Amino acid sequence: MPQGTPIRVVVADDHPLIREGIIASLTRSEDIRVVGEARNGEEAVMLVTRLLPDVVLMDIDMPAMDGITAISILTEKFTSLKILVLSAYEDNQHVYTAMQAGAMGYIIKRTDHASLLKVIRSVHQGDILISPYLARLTLKNLEPTSSNLEIHLTSREKEVLNLIIAGHENDAIANALAMSRDTLKTHLKHIFDKLQVKNRTQCAIKAIEKGIFPTRKN
Fold it and tell me: I want to staple 64 with a disulfide (CB 3.0 to 4.6 A). Which of 40, 50, 74, 178 is the partner?
């Protein structure tokens, strides 16, 4: 990784061995610095408020305050904060709930070291990430609940949405559509505004709920 300011991370998990293992893994990377650790959602909220990290690794099932509640509180207070869920749960309901609360990524705890580092770096840059397996599981189990008549997307926005639903990252979408990253960000902002969502995963979920199904290319 290029030299620069390290990504400041807070780790929240109620199991000491897991928490310490994650921290030990992250400290092996020069571009990531763990600035705090929390045993539950309540401690995570207090730590983040005091330390203002770049990224929070958040478990879901914790005492005192669960991770979902903590995510909702933190994303409301700190709109630029990046929260990545690192959980043992692999069902679509937990993924959906975490993303609706404001998480920017969701990965499972058996993720390997290299993949975890990659996801942290990508989330820090503003990408929304979910493991391909979990993405397929979540989207497959969602059903449209209302008409898309009130949602008006341009043809270009539909192309972008198609690639979001397919799980592509920002750079891949920009390359596929031959546009700059700044242009893509503009399209994403317009799509988010129209769908009234905060991130790409919420966008994909909302599109399916609204019955918006761009043609997928297999």
Answer: 40
- When mean pLDDT is compared across 92-101, 156-165, 169-178, 187-196, the lowest value belongs to 92-101
CATH number of the domain enclosing 86: 3.40.50.2300
How many residues are present in the chain?
Answer: 218
Does residue 1 sit within a domain? no
Q: Domain total for the chain?
A: 2
73 and 166 assigned to the same domain: no
CA 63/CA 153 separation, integer angstroms: 42
| CB-based contact 126:173 (threshold 8 Å) | no
Q: For residues 129-133, give the mean pLDDT.
A: 59
Tokens at 20, concatenated: 């310490």
CA dist 32 and 34 (Å) reads: 7
pLDDT in tens, 35-80: 999 999 999 999 999 999 999 999 999 999 999 999 999 999 998 8
CB of 7 closer than 8 Å to CB of 32:
yes
Report yes or no: 202 and 95 within 8 Å, Cβ to Cβ. Answer: no
User: What confidence score (pLDDT) does residue 98 get?
Assistant: 87
More confident residue, 3 or 6: 6
Report CA-CA distances (Å) from 5 to 8, 68, 126, 159.
9, 29, 16, 35
Token digits for 134? 């979990």
Q: Is the pLDDT of residue 1 over 70?
A: no
Domain range for 200 is 142-209
